[in-house]
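Q: Could you write out the predicted structure for this multi-component system? I'm mainly interested in how the pieces pack against one another.
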Amino acid sequence: MNQELFTINNLWMMVATILVFIMHLGFASLEAGLTRAKNTVNILFKNTIIPAIGLLTYAFIGFNLMYPGEGFAGGFIGFTGVGISLPEGWNTFAYNEGYTFFTDFIFQAMFAATAATIVSGAVAERIKLGPFITFSILYVGICYPIVGMWKWGGGFLDALDTPFYDFAGSTIVHSVGGWGALVGAFLLGPRLGKYTEHGMRAIPGHSIPMATIGVFLLWFGWFGFNGGSVLSADPGTVSLVFVTTAIAGAAGAFGALITSYIKFRTYDITMVLNGILAGLVGITAGADLMGVGEAAIIGFVGGILVVLGVVFFDRIKIDDPVGAISVHLVGGIWGTLAVGIFGDLAGIQQVISQLIGIAVVGAFCFLTSWLIFFSLKRSIGIRVEEREELEGLDINEHSMQAYPDFAPKD
Amino acid sequence: MNQELFTINNLWMMVATILVFIMHLGFASLEAGLTRAKNTVNILFKNTIIPAIGLLTYAFIGFNLMYPGEGFAGGFIGFTGVGISLPEGWNTFAYNEGYTFFTDFIFQAMFAATAATIVSGAVAERIKLGPFITFSILYVGICYPIVGMWKWGGGFLDALDTPFYDFAGSTIVHSVGGWGALVGAFLLGPRLGKYTEHGMRAIPGHSIPMATIGVFLLWFGWFGFNGGSVLSADPGTVSLVFVTTAIAGAAGAFGALITSYIKFRTYDITMVLNGILAGLVGITAGADLMGVGEAAIIGFVGGILVVLGVVFFDRIKIDDPVGAISVHLVGGIWGTLAVGIFGDLAGIQQVISQLIGIAVVGAFCFLTSWLIFFSLKRSIGIRVEEREELEGLDINEHSMQAYPDFAPKD
Amino acid sequence: MNQELFTINNLWMMVATILVFIMHLGFASLEAGLTRAKNTVNILFKNTIIPAIGLLTYAFIGFNLMYPGEGFAGGFIGFTGVGISLPEGWNTFAYNEGYTFFTDFIFQAMFAATAATIVSGAVAERIKLGPFITFSILYVGICYPIVGMWKWGGGFLDALDTPFYDFAGSTIVHSVGGWGALVGAFLLGPRLGKYTEHGMRAIPGHSIPMATIGVFLLWFGWFGFNGGSVLSADPGTVSLVFVTTAIAGAAGAFGALITSYIKFRTYDITMVLNGILAGLVGITAGADLMGVGEAAIIGFVGGILVVLGVVFFDRIKIDDPVGAISVHLVGGIWGTLAVGIFGDLAGIQQVISQLIGIAVVGAFCFLTSWLIFFSLKRSIGIRVEEREELEGLDINEHSMQAYPDFAPKD
């Protein structure tokens, strides 16, 4: 290691950090676009405050929960105290060959908020703001970093004989969000009028342009999410990750396009958009392990699964306005398994380790998010009143409208 | 060459890659903004699926058509097989001093889809989806890389005594798209109600904010499009290219503002936006050859030409809803010629070579896009039915609306 | 210094340059979102033409006014001629260890336009286009670089015994814009119907999504604004600046959220958005001097101040449609003072120097912007006619509508 390479590595990690940052605008746009105009301020409010929560809680406790240090290697939980304290040599390659302490912190902090952002889409249009903020603080501040520690902090999933592998977080990030989304959507129940005695009623999002902007920004940011997870600017690995990330997203678009055309006989842009995301979630666990063809298959299957997932969750009446559970939970499980099926680590032992990781993380996230949401439901309540839901959360929770100058339809 | 410089160069090329990627969101936003709300889903669908097509076809055949290797130097066409195969030393500076094989591929792949994106704007609001997708696959997958090979793959335009010069693609990228746009718009005919017996009727785009977002994102991405075309992070050249790119865009805004004010006596923001783009297209061929003053002149003239172009094409009743032909074809020809008139290579021999390049590329693109569009027109048809056009493509091709919560005017 | 580090440094400065560039889209989106639909084309027009003005005037005279060279060290004004002339060794580390001459120019040029963009929000919905453009050219082309020279060009504020400190421009950039905004808003008077005999009437912005997109893009770009102001890719300093920038923005969100909830008993997203910006403006002067806790305090107080500022300026009937004065002037003064209160330079001497800088810059900007706006008011007039204001500037100044396909409310 020398100062030049250290500076290059650190520069890439910082650029990757801001690419992950802009993913929060991607989530905000996507979720706002796929929900109704009367709830737009609410969605945007949540997606604006969540990154702020993520950054602050991660500085306060999250980072020290997720990276408690060597004394906790192989463990389940560890914590080294509140707040940020600079280690010796924090700004040299003695700390890390790829980045300074602060780069380490800020790159990871940008990831942290993602978990709650994923949930926000699934519980949209009916959750009360206060309980959602409470959930977000607890889930982002405590649950996410504990799970993260299991793998990235050197915990027990990393210490398996065949270590669980999750390059950039199909499980550690996306399915963590996905489980919270599933529990939240289930405990809240469907939006009024979604499942009627006459069957399922589509509730279209209010702005396809915003949804499209959101997906492009997410894809854009994903080059930092996956590319930064190389933890250096190594030319070979980062460029491979770029290619697999790009190809998987593209293949996801086609997987969803073809599947949705077969099922619905129409060119459904929301399915294509979610297909891209599912392809990206799918490649995330093994973006550094796959070739071009494997990335295309993983992405394509992700695109198929997201369409089937949306249909499935509607069938069991779990109402997920933006398809977040199908994208992040189904896609995350698929991507995690794919590491055992394709690429450099493929093998039955790896499949088993991947299944262990999926199951343990799933159980923990399911239980903790159930605990949080259920406690809130029993105490202060998590769902807005029927009148508020019908009128929209913007007027009732924020005394505002997203588009006050335009006439609503009917 | 050493590992440090190689890593820096590769890093810049990867950053440039994602900047070019986000240009696709720029095109999507611009084209959606400049067309009507009833066709917005359709436009966004096309601009979302085109990058996916570009990435996949480029991996499948495009890259090997565009860079067939030394055996085809000076040639017209070459091909080394389907799919991506890694050469020896692909991730070292033995492959290339500026980037790895995968960086090479992904940077070029991001360019590829641009050609079809440009077309999509000119044929908007009346083309059938299936034929457009077919055209895009063929044009992006085959025609674009063949033209690209002529110059960037070491083909015959690069082998002229005075080599044709096109730094980042005024001709190779933008006019390739522009010719397809011209042919498509001509063969489709104008939108219903555009040219009546009472003269030309303006059909305003439905969202100036989206158009503005689009142009800013395109300008943003252009720093990667032109800056990445340096093919290294060389401080002097890349910073020069940044300056010429910025100045030409700014001067294009003023060229169009002044020209449109003189012609129409109003401050027309769509002309200013297209003026910026025309300035950028104009500087693209010689962004590394010009000084600040020359960049300003090239951009300013580009801005003038785009206004005159829009007026001209309306006069000959070629209906281009977003002005793509004026921006990319007129601007591309201007920029390519400008290399012979201004800057380091100026001279009569260079003008001749530039004219040869413009003519040969033009003839090839005109013929191939005519062949594709005309075959489609005669077989499955390329234009939606009158009723569908009046109702909008969103309802008829996608069974969706872009803004279902808002009341349309009238 | 060696070629490798020079190339890395220059690369980061170029990336930072395009991050600052995209802030102009951030301003455009934010200001358009927080004003009414009938004035949207006008706002976007101004925010599109301002960066063009900034780039061209900075090339023509601004750069040479702001960095007149050593002969003017400690001075009040200097100028070395019109246009860009390349110094010897401009593209080597002989020119500068962090960047080439052209990188120097383009990074600074991207900053320049910011001053006028800030003004544009405060004077929105009632200023005539011509006079605003005139003001912008003079303010960006002349006033801003003179102030910039006082500190960054080695002028008298940099030569104080305890030098005035302003890392990335809380005073030099943001308050320069803020003073112009204050003067412009005052001389124009409030929008019709804003302050009536029945009290202040809220005039909500027409698109919360656009405002949200704007703030995220500004935050995104701020990593380049502050991070690039390190003037090299030094891993320790840039990563520290990233952390303080991120934390201050996040804390600003909470400062404004809590304050506005206490005052208005509602979750006001526009206050949260402006709170983020005020946190960012606040940290800008000392982003390289603070720890995590100090950044959080500075951001949090910025968030409080922006809410109090909005209330205050409404009380004294200075109508600022987007809150620009509270964000950039109040936030800028707070951030500049904070350098004397917190962090590495804290101390009474520093407070005094900071106060001197605030006062001198304030006096100069107040006077020059008064002079420009007042001359324009007395000559060609600065305010549109009552009828034009009521109908909207889009129809009257641009003969266009931003959203022609949608029905306005009422």
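A: Regarding packing and overall arrangement: Chain B has one domain: 3-74+89-391.
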